[in-house]
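Section 5: illustrative case.
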């Protein structure tokens, strides 16, 4: 029997022969290029096709790597920023504490200067902290954290680094109450340093007032006023300065409103002097 070849068989054969020829041609081109030490046309075509693709893929990979690095860097910056903020807060707190300590040290140095000025180094008195102040009470007074066990006695004079604070009116074992010179019931013998004129200093709640000043005395704004020595108070303790003079021609005495040396609104430390 004779085999009958179909049209499709002939097509397959033609394709096979063509591919064989192309393969042989490619091989010959590769061999020729290898002998001459150059790149074959096939390699040029492949390179021309693959190079842009490789470039795109490489760029994308680099972009992803850069973004990842940026994210890591951003996270590191955020952590560093939080650490810096915490450090700033800690330094601010330390700075405020140092300021408070500096103010306290200045006040303690002024108190030491007051002791030296009053020649009390042999009996330096009792240093106390102010632990209570009630402006709504009937009397203008403070509470200190020293009492009878510390040697505090009734009528003991109390000073700060700036001047006279008042005197002790009641004593407990661990604390004491001090009547301020701004209380209206307070009465302190005093005199004007410039003219050596005597008077009595009483309180007006906000300020102090020197009464019973001789009419013939010329009182000036800013004149200093100090304590005069008496049964309770030693002499020479600064009280304040004249703020305003009240003089009437038909009166027996003149008076003067004083600005106390002590700022009672921020008073924190005092010295209780030994009883006379």
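Designed sequence:
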């Amino acid at each position: 029997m004779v085999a009958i070849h179909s049209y499709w068989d002939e097509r397959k054969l033609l394709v096979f022969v063509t591919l064989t020829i192309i393969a042989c041609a490619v091989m010959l081109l590769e061999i020729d290029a290898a002998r001459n030490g150059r790149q074959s046309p096939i390699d040029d075509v492949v390179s021309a096709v693959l190079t842009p693709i490789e470039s795109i893929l490489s760029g994308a990979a680099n972009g992803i790597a850069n973004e990842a690095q940026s994210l890591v860097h951003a996270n590191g910056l955020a952590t560093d920023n939080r650490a810096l903020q915490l450090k700033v807060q800690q330094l601010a707190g330390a700075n405020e504490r140092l300021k408070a300590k500096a103010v306290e040290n200045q006040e303690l140095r002024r108190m030491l200067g007051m002791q030296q000025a009053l020649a009390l180094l042999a009996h330096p008195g009792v240093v106390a902290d102010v632990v209570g102040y009630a402006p709504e009470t009937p009397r203008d007074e403070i509470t200190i954290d020293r009492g009878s066990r510390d040697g505090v006695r009734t009528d003991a004079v109390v000073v700060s680094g700036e001047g006279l604070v008042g005197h002790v009116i009641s004593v407990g074992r661990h604390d004491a109450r001090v009547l301020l010179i701004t209380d209206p019931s307070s009465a302190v013998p005093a005199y004007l340093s410039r003219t050596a004129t005597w008077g009595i200093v009483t309180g007006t709640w906000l300020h102090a007032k020197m009464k019973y000043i001789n009419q013939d005395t010329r009182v000036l704004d800013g004149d200093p006023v100090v304590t005069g020595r008496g049964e309770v108070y030693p002499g020479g303790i600064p009280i304040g300065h004249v703020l305003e003079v009240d003089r009437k021609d038909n009166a027996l005495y003149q008076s003067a409103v004083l600005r106390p040396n002590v700022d009672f609104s921020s008073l924190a430390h005092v010295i209780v002097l030994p009883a006379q």
